Amino acid sequence: MTAKTVVSFDEVADLAGKDLGFSEWREITQDQVNLFADATDDHQWIHTDPEKAASGPFGAPIAHGFLTLSLLIPMWGELFDVSDVKTKVNYGLDKVRFTSPVKVGARVRMTVTITEVSEVKGNGLHLVADATIEIEGEERPAVVARFLNRFYK
Fold this sequence. Notes:
Layout: E1 5-7, H1 9-12, E2 19-22, E3 26-27, H2 30-40, H3 45-48, H4 50-54, H5 65-70, H6 72-79, E4 80-82, E5 87-98, E6 107-120, E7 124-135, E8 143-152
Parallel strand pairs: 1-4
Antiparallel strand pairs: 2-6, 3-6, 5-8, 6-7, 7-8
């Protein structure tokens, strides 16, 4: 894992173009997939039935794309923080793509580059980050997304 970047509000604007490095690897477990299925009411067999999924199109059960995407939040927290703000907001996502399935038992990590920083009303900053969630040993990433954040002083 790359060392976490922690900056003050006044330093955020200088980060455009900065590569934040890599988060820790995280293993995707069947229990995690099953809990996500329960939380979202998405029990499709390719996720929750290991025996049937073994003979399915991916040769194993796979994580829901939105489960993999949701890991962006804890992995972002491993890589970046603004120390002296009152409010931090996950503002949204742009251009999200699920480019490769993540098989149960695989490990994923995220790499992030901050692409833009701009001011917003209310003494805030809007930060745009390009995030890629990689699968260990795979050429294609699992998720590619533009992650939008806001910080208010």
